[in-house]
Amino acid sequence: EAVLNVPHQVGTVILDASGKVVSSSGELAGDESVPSVVQNLLLDCGDLRFLKARRRDSDDSHNDEDTEEDEALERLTISFPGYQYVVAFDADHTYIVKQTVDTDVDNDGSGRLIRP
What we know:
Elements: E1 9-16, E2 21-26, H1 33-45, H2 49-57, E3 75-80, E4 83-89, E5 93-100
Antiparallel strand pairs: 1-2, 1-5, 3-4, 4-5
């Protein structure tokens, strides 16, 4: 599956439309907490199409022929120092990938991240 080919991935979970785990691998294998938290986060977020609409309102190339399907949330990234969860969707599944991320740490040993 394409989910297994994501660079720097250390774990994956695939959920069906009802939120049940279809498959999992790596660090997320057998971990029910991550899918549960992601599902609850998505439910709390509700309909995020308005975010895309705002961006498009400021875009001169706005196409009035866009369909409502074009406005569906495509991907959500939940970032932490050192790793992130990338959540993507299709009509039948939710895909969760845990990835390590490259970070530069401050030389004073404080552990603070240096962001460009």
